[in-house]
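Students often ask why we bother encoding 3D structure as a string. The short answer is that it lets us treat folding as translation between two languages. Here is a chain of 482 residues written in the first language.
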Amino acid sequence: MSNFQVRVRGPWAVLLGASLLISLMTAPATANQSDPLEVFYNQSLKWTKCGKASCTFVTVPLDYQQPDDFTITLAIRRIGSPDLPPLIMNPGGPGSEGTAFTQSIAASLDSSVTDAFTPVGFDPRGTGKSAPVKCFTGPSANKWLRIDSTPDTKTEIANYMSAAAKISPACQRMSPDIVAHIGTENTVRDMDIVRATLGSQKLNWLGFSYGTSLGTRYAELFPDKVGRMVLDGAVDPSLNSMELSRGQSRGFQKAIGRFNGQYPGSITMINRLLRALDRTEMDTEGSQTLTQSEATTAIFLSMYSPSFWPSLHEALQEASQGNGTLLQELSYYANDQITPTKFSSNVLSAFISINCWDYPPTPGATELARSARQFSRKAKVPELARAMSWGNAPCSTWFEHSSIKPAPAETTTSAPILIIGTTYDPATPLAWARALHEQLPTSSLLTFVSDGHTAYLGGSTCVDQAVDNYLLTGVAPKTKTC
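And here it is in the second language, the structure alphabet:
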């Protein structure tokens, strides 16, 4: 999503892997002159054991406009029999690895589903082990995550915008090949090659959050190849970055209100804390003080699932006594941050790069400041609302953007598609799921009356049974509320 991403599904989260291997290849692909993509669609895969799963790499063009030139490889992980149709999964982000995600949730799937499908995950280009993009060093990432993300004065605004403007050239310097070729459009084309190399005539897709954007675009580009498609936590493709941010800002404010209902007085405590941190950083038991930006990140993270609410409540109680340790730990968890300067994934670089590439340029400082004031008007926690606007700053000066503009989805697919929206989802508001349902004529909408981001495998038997029945039969409920 536009400003803040976390890969949380109910009471558990995705823990992403260690070393990131550059997979950019220097030899051009040899292609059939009549169809330069044929060599990619017809490639044979070599599978190896990786723990309890099987792993391989799929070769795709670096640039689909020039597929005969350089290639990259995408990491693929399969959990189960190669003889069953693949059910390909994506956790969202953008920027999240799909291999570790699929490994982590495969055991949560009902046996009827795993008897019918083989769970498959892949790291989208620019993430994980699929030509990972790099825009930060450990120290520079830590510095960016700690900077004042709700600047108040001219000096603070200048410092923040200057830091944001350095990210694009850093990406171009550290990842000159892949950074110009990531984004939804290329990833969706990769998805079709992955489908074909797995021997599947149709794409069976389970996409969460940003994964719904990938699924929607696939249905537009490859309408005849859509199989069973679940879009959970749907994104409205007609919205630009600032419109997405506005919707998310409202969503997080509603979630904060729900949290306050369970822990009365929390909003007062949060506002008092964030005002104090804007003036003075707070001591922790670690090597760094707690900044306002880190506290904000911890609060955003905790709204993704009620399972985080007890931890946030404890962290706020601790902070009220002058100790920011637990809030900082939540912030670190949100960004795959192991130590101040060590990260377990490249999610920060990938998240910014893909978002900035996918959408038109976001406004400069003057308009971001205006939007920050607008977002925060009547907000329960104004600092969170303001942060949602300012979070778009890196895309204000991005070096290039996709030629595909935000627009309502249009597809000729005849395949039934199941869309899921959660009533109090902070990151992908229910209104987006309803909008996408209107745009996709063969879709059905399942509404989950609950808190948190996404619904499937989040603890609702009603939701899980509805999704499982659709996956097994291909018949989606007309309208359903759980």
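Translate back mentally: Residues 241-262 form the longest helix (22 residues). Keep this in mind for the problem set.
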